Each structure stands twice: as structure tokens, then as C-alpha cells.
């Protein structure tokens, strides 16, 4: 099995390292059929998991993500992949792959919410900035892609501890999550912003109000200016 897996890794790496280009080109290329593409999902997952852990390369890992992305519709496969790919977060050191995994994690969150939410709670207090970002972005990702949501209180309880996080990419993720939260729970989110507007960073605030109408935007801009200036 190990020799076979190594052969498959060599096949992937040889092909992908011959490529150049951008994400759309790599996404198109990810549809290539490998000699192992006919194997069961679980067997293919083993191969892509090994690649993720042995190759510290953005483009190679992106193709491991593309494999997952093709398997987001079957609940059985989402359940099966979770104990494997939850470990992938440990290798994350950039926002691109972090947010790619968020797309997968948020789907699994709908299937096994208690288990995934417990992991997000752990990441929320981690010293690693990418785990803290993941604890936010995975909650909703882009809310339009989800059918089921956690409660407002569950989501906001992971936002509040990171309101004053010093890391830029955590603040970007926090603003993103507030923006999507407003889409799902508009009134509670506006109440939350009203309460915490002094603590919300300028980075997060700008993103949080992106999808609001002009009246709401102007209201919160004026409120934030007033409260911040009164500090």
C-alpha cells in the first residue's frame, strides 16, 4: 500500500510541477484523471492526505483541496473526511489555503455541528493566528452556500473574544464573519455592532458593513466615529 501511495504521489507531483499559471488554470487542471482516480473516495483521500503532509507547496496542497471540493455533497464523505482533514489546519500558513479549508469545514459543520463547533472553540483561543482566523471564517464562510446555521449566540461567542485581536488576518476574518452574520441574522447583528462598535477594529468594521444598505452604513459610520472619538 505504501509503495502504491508513493507511486501515486510521484504521479501527482510530476504532473503539477510541470504547470505554471494561476488558480483558475489549476482548478481546470484539477479535473485531470490520474491512474488512481477510479479508486474509492477513502482510498483517494489517503493519497491526497499524504501529499498534504509531505509537500510544503501551495499549488500541490491546492489540488488536495480541489479533491475535497468535489466531494461536498455526500454526507457520508463529509463525515469520513473530517477526522483526516481537521489535521490539515496544522500546516496552514497563508490565508488562501486557510479560507479554502473553511469552505470544506463549514459544510461539515452542517453535518456534525457539535464536533466541528467544539474544534472551532479550541482554535478560537489558539496561539496560531490561522487557527483563530479559521475559528471565525468556518462559522459561516459565504452564508449563501449554507442551508443550516448555528445560532446567533454560538457564532457571536466566538467573535467577541477576538474583537481586539492584534493580527491583521484575524481581523479580516472577523469582519468577514460579521458581514455574513448580518446576512443571516440582520437585527441581532446590528444590535451586536451597536454594543461593541468601539471594540471593532477599523479593518473589521469596513468589511462588516459592506452588504448593508447606504442608510445602515451611514448610521454605523457616524455612531463609530462618535464613540471612538469619545474615548
Automatic annotation (TrEMBL):
The organism's place on the tree of life at top rank: Bacteria
InterPro entries (alphabetical): ARM-type_fold, DNA_alkylation
Pfam families the UniProt entry points to: DNA_alkylation
Gene3D superfamilies: 1.25.10.90
Protein name: DNA alkylation repair enzyme
Species assigned in the record: Mucilaginibacter frigoritolerans
Amino acid at each position: 500500500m505504501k509503495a502504491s501511495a508513493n507511486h501515486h504521489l510521484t504521479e501527482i507531483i510530476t504532473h503539477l510541477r510541470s504547470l505554471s499559471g494561476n488558480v483558475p488554470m489549476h482548478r481546470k487542471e484539477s479535473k485531470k484523471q490520474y491512474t488512481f482516480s477510479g479508486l474509492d473516495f477513502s482510498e483517494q483521500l489517503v493519497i491526497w492526505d499524504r501529499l498534504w503532509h509531505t509537500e510544503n507547496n501551495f499549488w500541490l496542497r491546492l489540488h488536495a483541496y480541489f479533491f475535497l471540493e468535489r466531494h461536498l455533497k455526500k454526507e457520508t464523505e463529509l463525515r469520513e473526511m473530517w477526522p483526516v482533514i481537521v489535521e490539515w489546519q496544522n500546516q496552514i500558513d497563508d490565508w488562501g489555503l486557510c479560507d479554502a479549508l473553511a469552505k470544506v469545514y463549514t459544510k461539515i459543520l452542517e453535518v456534525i455541528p457539535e464536533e466541528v463547533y467544539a474544534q472551532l472553540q479550541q482554535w478560537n483561543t489558539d496561539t496560531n493566528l490561522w487557527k483563530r482566523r479559521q475559528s471565525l471564517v468556518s462559522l459561516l464562510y459565504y452564508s449563501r452556500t449554507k442551508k443550516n446555521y448555528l445560532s446567533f449566540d454560538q457564532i457571536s461567542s466566538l467573535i467577541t473574544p477576538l474583537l481586539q485581536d492584534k493580527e491583521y488576518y484575524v481581523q479580516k476574518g472577523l469582519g468577514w464573519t460579521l458581514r455574513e452574520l448580518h446576512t443571516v441574522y440582520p437585527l441581532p447583528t446590528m444590535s451586536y455592532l451597536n454594543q461593541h462598535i468601539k471594540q471593532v477594529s477599523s479593518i473589521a468594521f469596513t468589511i462588516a458593513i459592506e452588504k448593508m444598505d447606504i442608510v445602515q452604513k451611514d448610521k454605523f459610520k457616524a455612531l463609530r466615529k462618535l464613540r471612538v472619538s469619545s474615548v
